[in-house]
């Protein structure tokens, strides 16, 4: 989706502005840590992900991502944690990046992906839990996107791309022309989607290392493949997003595990992060489901559904209706664990066999990943963080979290984490606007501070409590002395379907009203200095920044990362042809809407705000052309501006030196215009 992260509640309506910030008084940390966060701290934070639990629920695999400053790269290492006690163990070395760990069902093997030696692409590696060195399992041609162990641990189901044919055309000095036949022909991170880019299923024999193709090559992508409990069948989705008019973009198929004809079971309105979970008897498959309405398909909140394999009938699990649920994980007894995004919080929950949903934590920490069964009193594994503690692996038992790892603990204790508090206010059309305020370093009640409206992307998704990459940017701004507003404007998740669908064919309207309302609240409540207001964001956050500065000159500095001010220029250039066709129609069908959404560039002569534009030169999500055009407009108009282009970077910056550079540049830009 375009254009792709607990405290005292402060509910101050605009009418209560005369009371100042009395509701925020006393919110400073009880005991100050040594210092506010620095860029070095941000770069040193370890990112934990890819959590996988053993069949007995007593062990968990996960990856730790860290920066290799010397080589200017990020690397993943595989770690093993015990839920019953003991220090976590690193399983892979420092010289190679290793990802996607998994246990074999029989418990003997630990598998992972890694590119080592002369490998052109990552290969599958096995570690024997009885001891010994890791060994490469065969020589797989093509890019392995996902894999699953068979129930008997003898075969691994691969989802991988077709290999590029060998031949003289592979010479870098004599590249082949790109031939396009599909409507959808670009994807961020992949570039042009040629035939070799499509993903299909293969079976890899563990004993011999031989891979056998199960689904035919062609201009489609298979994903979310899962074995049936008895290992006799495989279920998977086929992506039909190449049909821009189709709302049911994920087609569910079931095929014999040995290969052969696949049967179409159901056509499902697609969502990102899809997963398939078979029932124990193999009669139903649970999965995520979006909306059948094409116009709002891009704003669909994922819900849980069950499809009958025999009849193809799909039924929504009613307890997840109007909720944003993600990352479904199978548990025993027909239960399914999910993550619920709910008004500034990410909560673990369990859906039982009857369909009843139960939240299983108090929300003090934001849980982003979970797996496994409760191994008695040891609980089950999750990855979680809070506003004052970056991610660690925890055991969740009885609604309580117990830390199993301490990858970021020493660093966290050195930082004076800025307090993050909820606030609510009301827009002029009656909408309840919810957000969070990150207080500036050294905050004292009764003072006004330079304030930055920091806008999340998406627009689906939400600003939530926890310490991920995006919230670290808020902490970084706080350390520079700014109050930071994070607003879950209309279109965000966590507030129900209708709230998320509001933006359909109406960009830059009610979302902008909500953002203005939050700034009004910050000024009227006595926190924000009205003469030192800044705004910024990345992706849809950059797009909204462009809308804000063209309509409101009270912002004294702006940062627009991976934004666009002229949607007309990106038709056929970015990856959103399906969204355009479904939601607003083609430019020749609804030129009025295309012109409306191009307001920032077409009315750029209204902009007075000094603005910094950024983007990656290889971004096919929101191409840097959007920033280039806005930059040229402001240059011609004499408005202070700067453009920063990051070579070969896609929508999300990957190179550590570029990540550091971005932080330094937007902080310096705000300092130039907001500090005095």
Which features does this protein show?
9-stranded mixed beta sheet; Rossmann fold; 4-stranded antiparallel beta sheet; Neuraminidase; about 675 residues; alpha+beta; about 15% helix
Account of the 3D structure:
- The structure is a single chain.
- This protein has 676 residues and is of the alpha+beta class.
- The relative contact order is 0.11.
- Among the domains are: 9-39 and 413-674, Alpha/Beta hydrolase fold, catalytic domain (Rossmann fold, 3-Layer(aba) Sandwich), CATH 3.40.50; 147-166 and 183-325, 6 Propeller (Neuraminidase).
- It has a nine-stranded mixed sheet with strand order 1-32-33-35-34-36-37-38-39, with helices on both faces. Strands 2-3-4-5 form a four-stranded antiparallel sheet, with no helix packed on it.
- It is 16% helix and 34% strand.
- Strand 29 and strand 30 form a beta hairpin.
Characterize this entry briefly:
The protein contains 11 helices and 39 strands.
- Assembly of the depicted chains: single chain
User: Helical element count?
Assistant: 11
Radius of gyration: 25 Å
Provide the structure class: alpha+beta
Give the CA-based shape: globular
Superfamily at the CATH H level of the domain at 9-39 and 413-674? Answer: Alpha/Beta hydrolase fold, catalytic domain
The biggest beta sheet reads: 9 strands, mixed
Which strand order do you get reading across the main beta sheet? 1-32-33-35-34-36-37-38-39
Give start-end ranges of low-pLDDT stretches.
Answer: 4-33
GO molecular function: serine-type endopeptidase activity
Domain Peptidase S9 prolyl oligopeptidase catalytic: 471-675
InterPro entries: 6-blade_b-propeller_TolB-like, AB_hydrolase_fold, Peptidase_S9_cat, WD40
Protein name: S9 family peptidase
């Amino acid at each position: 989706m375009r254009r792709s992260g607990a405290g005292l509640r402060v509910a101050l309506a605009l009418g209560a502005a005369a009371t100042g910030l009395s509701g925020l008084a006393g919110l400073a940390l009880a005991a100050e840590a040594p210092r506010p966060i620095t860029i070095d701290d941000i770069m040193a934070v370890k990112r934990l992900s890819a959590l996988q639990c053993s069949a007995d629920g007593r062990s968990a695999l996960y990856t730790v991502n860290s920066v290799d400053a010397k080589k200017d790269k990020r690397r993943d290492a595989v770690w093993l944690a015990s839920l019953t006690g003991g220090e976590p163990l690193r399983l892979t070395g420092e010289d190679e990046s290793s990802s996607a760990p998994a246990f074999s069902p029989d418990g003997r093997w630990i598998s992972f992906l890694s590119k080592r030696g002369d490998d052109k692409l990552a290969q599958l590696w096995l570690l024997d839990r009885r001891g010994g060195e890791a060994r490469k399992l065969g020589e797989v041609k093509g890019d392995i996107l996902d894999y699953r162990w068979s129930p008997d641990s003898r075969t691994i189901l691969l989802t991988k791309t077709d290999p590029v044919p060998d031949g003289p055309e592979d010479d870098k000095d004599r590249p082949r022309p790109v031939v396009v036949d599909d409507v959808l022909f670009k994807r961020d991170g992949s570039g042009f989607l040629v035939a070799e880019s499509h993903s299909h299923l293969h079976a890899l024999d563990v004993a011999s290392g031989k891979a056998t193709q199960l689904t035919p090559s062609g201009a489609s992508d298979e994903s979310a493949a899962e074995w049936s409990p008895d290992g006799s069948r495989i279920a998977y989705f086929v992506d039909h997003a190449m049909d821009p008019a189709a709302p049911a973009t994920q087609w569910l198929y079931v095929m014999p595990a040995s290969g052969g004809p696949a049967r179409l079971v159901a056509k499902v309105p697609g969502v990102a992060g899809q997963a398939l979970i078979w029932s124990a008897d193999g009669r139903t498959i649970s999965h995520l489901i979006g909306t059948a309405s094409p116009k709002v398909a891009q704003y669909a909140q994922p819900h849980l559904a069950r499809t009958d394999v025999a009849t193809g009938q799909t039924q929504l699990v009613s307890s997840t209706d109007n909720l944003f649920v993600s990352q479904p994980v199978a548990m025993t007894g027909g239960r399914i664990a999910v993550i619920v995004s709910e008004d500034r919080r990410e909560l673990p929950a369990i859906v039982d066999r009857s369909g009843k949903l139960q939240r299983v934590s108090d929300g003090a920490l934001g849980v982003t990943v979970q797996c496994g069964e409760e191994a008695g009193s040891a609980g089950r594994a999750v990855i979680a963080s809070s506003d004052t503690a970056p991610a660690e692996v925890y055991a969740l038992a009885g609604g309580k979290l117990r830390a199993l790892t301490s990858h970021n603990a020493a660093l966290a204790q050195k930082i004076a984490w800025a307090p993050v508090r909820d606030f609510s206010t009301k827009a002029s059309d009656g909408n309840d606007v919810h957000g969070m305020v990150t207080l500036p370093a050294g905050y004292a009640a009764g003072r006004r501070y330079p304030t930055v409206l920091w806008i999340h992307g998406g627009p689906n998704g939400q600003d939530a409590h926890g310490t991920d990459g995006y919230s670290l940017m808020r902490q970084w701004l706080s350390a520079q002395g700014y109050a930071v507003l994070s607003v879950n404007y209309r279109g965000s998740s966590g507030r129900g379907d209708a709230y998320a669908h509001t933006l359909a064919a109406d960009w830059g309207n009610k979302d902008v009203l909500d953002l203005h309302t939050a700034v009004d609240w910050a000024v009227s409540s006595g926190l924000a200095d009205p003469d030192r207001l800044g705004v910024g964001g990345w992706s849809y956050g950059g797009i909204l920044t462009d809308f804000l500065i063209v309509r409101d000159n009270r912002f004294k500095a702006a940062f627009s990362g991976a934004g666009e001010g002229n949607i007309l220029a990106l038709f056929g250039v970015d990856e959103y042809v399906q969204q355009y066709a479904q939601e607003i129609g083609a430019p020749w069908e609804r030129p009025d809407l295309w012109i409306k959404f191009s307001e920032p560039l077409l009315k750029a002569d209204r902009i007075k705000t000094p603005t910094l534009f950024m983007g990656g030169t290889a971004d096919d999500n929101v191409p840097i052309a959007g920033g280039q055009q806005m930059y040229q407009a402001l240059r011609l108009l004499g408005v202070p501006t700067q453009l920063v282009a990051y070579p070969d970077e896609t929508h999300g910056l990957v190179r550590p030196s570029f990540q550091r550079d971005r932080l330094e540049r937007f902080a310096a830009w705000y300092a130039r215009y907001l500090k005095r």
